[in-house]
Design goal:
Oligomer: single chain
Distance between the termini: 38 Å
Radius of gyration: 18 Å
Number of strands: 0
Shape: globular
Largest sheet: none
Length: 214
């Protein structure tokens, strides 16, 4: 997953510089926002002269999936000190969630598993900062025909597939994927939020039917 994040961060750095964002601000965005997909969208909007309020709102919509991650992982972290919760919340990304939730599902003391979550999050954070810096330094020297952005797609596939352990989760994932393709033309990346909601609805419906049958 770190190998997948490397080219993703480099491309963000290149895109930020190409959009006219100062190097220090581009790097700061990786430290403060720390969300690749949102950063890419925000850079595109900034490059096109979009008003600041729209840029902020779009970033929020793209990142709304983190609320779902938080809801999923909170039963395992609710006993932690608030400072730990704040730190892990900051480090919560798609990749960190993917590896951490699988680890939490294994037998053992949840409170001790915070170190696994912390280690994964810090590894991803460090990789993202370094790859962003590399992209900023390289500027426009990376050929577009390298298509390094596809590495991010492979990373997400590697995250999702191990988590699909039954018919319900597989159905929810496939439904969300199909919905995302059908509504890809929606503005402000609203298709991502809509696909997530549809996937959740399908998963909950199947879960209720399963429990009712039992």
């Amino acid at each position: 997953m770190l190998l997948g994040a490397l080219p993703f961060g480099m491309i963000y750095g290149v895109a930020a510089i190409s959009a006219g964002i100062p190097a220090s601000i581009a790097q700061a965005m990786s430290s403060i926002v720390f969300a690749g997909s949102a950063q890419f969208v925000m850079v595109q909007l900034i490059a096109s002269g979009t008003p600041a309020l729209v840029v902020i709102l779009t970033g929020f919509i793209v990142n709304i999936r983190h609320m779902l991650y938080s809801a999923s992982i909170s039963p395992h972290t609710r006993m932690l000190h608030p400072l730990w919760k704040w730190l892990l919340a900051y480090l919560l990304t798609d990749e960190a969630y993917g590896v951490s939730i699988l680890h939490y599902q294994k037998p053992g003391d949840d409170k001790q598993k915070r170190w696994y979550f912390l280690g994964g999050g810090l590894a991803l954070w460090t990789t993202w900062q370094l790859s962003t810096a590399a992209g900023i330094f390289l500027g426009g020297h990376i050929p577009a025909n390298w298509s390094l952005d596809f590495a991010s797609t492979l990373t997400f596939i590697a995250l999702v597939v191990p988590a699909l352990k039954d018919r319900i989760s597989t159905s929810a994932a496939l439904t969300a994927a199909l919905t995302a393709l059908l509504v890809i033309a929606l503005p402000l990346k609203l298709g991502i939020a809509l696909a997530a909601l549809v996937g959740i609805a399908v998963g909950l419906t199947l879960e209720v039917k399963k429990n009712t049958a039992i």
